[in-house]
Design goal:
5-stranded antiparallel beta sheet, 5 helices, 24% helix, 7 strands, alpha+beta
């Protein structure tokens, strides 16, 4: 099997054959960089903007390539100034501002966004309605928000949707 860039068709196999028959697709570094810098085509933009929930496209390194208007409202970011950011930086997670950065603190192992994106990217399995919370910085200070995450893999990207979730009910 040969692995090629889905955009430019350049070989990603380094002149060696990968086990199996056929062709697999990924994205080469040059196309990834161009994708990070470029505006998305109108048809993709229109489709993602038509969704009623926050939607984010991420690469395997958890970098944000695109966020629809609902996601931008959740993060308080402006169109275009978020590309390449990690998820915690995008939503202004209080732990992302640590010395080690997003994904590298003792709190990040329990991050529902990080774990869902990594599971989907590495295994190809969808994560449906994974619930958790994030402590984010807002104009009012640090607030805890409860979220439900769904991730699916499309090509070399992960599509992440975020929905509000109710806090867990604690009995006792």
């Amino acid at each position: 099997m040969y692995k090629i860039c889905a955009w430019c068709k350049k070989s990603l196999s380094a002149d060696t054959e990968i086990e199996g028959d056929g062709i697999s697709h990924g994205i080469c570094p040059d196309c990834k960089l161009a994708l990070l810098k470029a505006e998305f085509p109108t048809h993709l933009d229109t489709f993602l903007e038509s969704m009623d929930v926050p939607v984010v496209l991420m690469d395997g390194g958890r970098h944000i390539l695109y966020a629809n208007e609902h996601a931008l409202k959740l993060s308080s970011k402006n169109r275009g100034n978020y590309r390449g950011e990690l998820g915690g930086d995008f939503i202004q997670c209080k732990h992302a501002e640590s010395e080690n950065g997003c994904g590298e603190t003792e709190h990040c192992g329990a991050c529902v966004i990080k774990s869902s994106v990594e599971i989907t990217y590495k295994t190809g399995r969808d994560v449906i309605d994974a619930r958790g919370f994030q402590e984010i910085r807002t104009q009012r200070g640090v607030e805890r928000i409860y979220i439900s995450i769904t991730t699916i893999k499309k090509g070399d990207l992960v599509v992440l949707t975020i929905k509000d979730a109710e806090p867990p009910i604690v009995s006792g």
